[in-house]
Amino acid sequence: xxxxxxxxxxxxxxxxxxxxxxxxxxxxxxxxxxxxxxxxxxxxxxxxxxxxxxxxxxxxxxxxxxxxxxxxxxxxxxxxxxxxxxxxxxxxxxxxxxxxxxxxxxxxxxxxxxxxxxxxxxxxxxxxxxxxxxxxxxxxxxxxxxxxxxxxxxxxxxxxxxxxxxxxxxxxxxxxxxxxxxxxxxxxxxxxxxxxxxxxxxxxxxxxxxxxxxxxxxxxxxxxxxxxxxxxxxxxxxxxxxxxxxxxxxxxxxxxxxxxxxxxxxxxxxxxxxxxxxxxxxxxxxxxxxxxxxxxxxxxxxxxxxxxxxxxxxxxxxxxxxxxxxxxxxxxxxxxxxxxxxxxxxxxxxxxxxxxxxxxxxxxxxxxxxxxxxxxxxxxxxxxxxxxxxxxxxxxxxxxxxxxxxxxxxxxxxxxxxxxxxxxxxxxxxxxxxxx
Amino acid sequence: xxxxxxxxxxxxxxxxxxxxxxxxxxxxxxxxxxxxxxxxxxxxxxxxxxxxxxxxxxxxxxxxxxxxxxxxxxxxxxxxxxxxxxxxxxxxxxxxxxxxxxxxxxxxxxxxxxxxxxxxxxxxxxxxxxxxxxxxxxxxxxxxxxxxxxxxxxxxxxxxxxxxxxxxxxxxxxxxxxxxxxxxxxxxxxxxxxxxxxxxxxxxxxxxxxxxxxxxxxxxxxxxxxxxxxxxxxxxxxxxxxxxxxxxxxxxxxxxxxxxxxxxxxxxxxxxxxxxxxxxxxxxxxxxxxxxxxxxxxxxxxxxxxxxxxxxxxxxxxxxxxxxxxxxxxxxxxxxxxxxxxxxxxxxxxxxxxxxxxxxxxxxxxxxxxxxxxxxxxxxxxxxxxxxxxxxxxxxxxxxxxxxxxxxxxxxxxxxxxxxxxxxxxxxxxxxxxxx
Lengths: 436, 436
Hints:
- Helices cover about 40% and strands about 15% of the residues of chain A.
- By secondary structure, the first copy, chain A, is α/β, with parallel strands linked by helices.
- Chain A has an eleven-stranded mixed β-sheet with strand order 1-3-2-4-6-5-10-11-9-7-8, with helices on both faces.
């Protein structure tokens, strides 16, 4: 290895930098993996992002990636433990699945490995991607939640343990932990990324998603999964909608102020920032979403409920019990209501490259017993719209603040282009983790 | 057992008759299961509907159902081998999954077992619910295909081996085998039945479905899965749309004539039968559907492809290879086109309780190397609309002919009510299997 002593440590490189460095032989796959493992050994006693590390399995992955090459050759990534990765058990964050061995990779894991990616291990998840917390802590303050349910994936990327991780979002399980941990989180349009080998939480909403430290990495990996060209650079200055009204009611002054400042800065740099009124159909979405969510969660866990309900965590138990009491006609009415809102939102959002909103009303709250409030994230998931969290600021105590960017369904590339423009104009605003 | 000697054999009873008889103690769960097993032993050497029969596992199911009771207590059912049933391996019709043991029931299997249903075993499926054929034969003529991919479930119900079976439909995998085998097949609105524990084929289209010998059984089981009241009886005379145009171009005189006769009969009995022009958006659906299907199949099998592609059957291999060459922009354009057609079809179909069409252009074709033509079924699957196949006639040689009933999304109960009216006016038109 022939790198200057003051270079970014290998575990802190972006996925693109890792892939490029390996292709140019600036360093080897094993060097990157070792740097990530060293960081994990140093910090995971506090962060608890990983379910377990199997060095033999990692060694097999490294050998495989060295042989196969590919655009992601040597890029280590974490896999949320509701997604299968061959060679690791899939634990689902639940006592019910302890030691459960899948035979093959989940679809999106397989695609990343086909491109040369290296599975470093499974990351902690709330039970069945719900709200029963994982043991993971926030890398910026171990007394605070990292958010959930993709807690381990967000924390591992934020803490420099891995440049890339896979998550899933049914409510706010990618965007909320991305915001709380200060990394970029991306949930594509529903159905765009493969769902095979993913344990269902509520199948009408379940969407695999990505965590990275740069928008550029997200664009690279999403384009690879979709077999499409990356958005062209330089991206044009975007048209950004900013909703008015009730969505801001509970947002703290710190978060609202940070977003106002950032939007003003983007406008100064050439973005068109326009006020927008959300369609009325979105107002009643929360109740319909809760009905579909509980109805489907109960049915998607019917086998587990039948055999082992007493081993479920209390919040999982409660939602399944509640879901089985919902009637079909309530469910169908809720599905119809969501569909109406979906059409209305797609129409209204079509005028913008991205609509900018808070991800969360506040920074990561204290305590590990609750992963935070999903209300500002979950509606867009139910509407099947692509959404991103991008860190834009931090409190004086170093807790990250993010903006949420949402676009109409199918407009993922347009959203990514807008986010790339924002990243190139703002630079990285990720606060360093406490351990740095 | 105290039943008259000329009563319907227990293996030929409907699910409702089984449940009622057991509740009234006319016979026991074990009697029904034994009658089904006897039929399987007698006939499965020819029909080959079952993957394997594990009598110990069945015994455990019987004991469980005797203890728990429930509305389906004692109703034996078959489970397509892409759906998990705890206690049986899930083979996926593929060498790759030989001996693969799931930990829990698929969601819909678990729900049926919670209601007292008895898993009798796994039924043969085309590889990964695709088109690589299962060994199953058509119960009406073992030289002919039973259709696919839910080949074993359709054949088992048709042959009197079990009153009820679960299948899945991504193209025409429930309705086509139902039509070829002469049983009732039902595919609900996309997302209505739980998909957990189901191996994905193409996730935007995959829909679990049901096989039974009566519409009444389908209505009973669907209502149970949805936690809603069964449609009220007597059902009112339905308004039935009959599309004109290209959809009939390749339909044989035998099938077209049988459907014409049946629709005339329904009109005489009070149904309103109205001609209908399909919206133009449906015309170009086939190509868009093929693109989404191949794109998603490749990604949903990415893990299997990476590790063991050479053990895939030739048709599975080809579609995965093709799917990985499709670009993201082709996929997104196809998703958009399907969504446009979905809106158009739902609007047009809203005027009818059911739209009546052929399920297939002809009866089950000779040969076991090909499961038949999916073109008349797959569009409705892509559009997420509920669809049923109901046997209405047979050729002189005893090969079944079915009508397809399709309704707008979310209108499953209205469709079932129309189908119940049809069943009560026509009576059962299922030809007996060759072995009877």
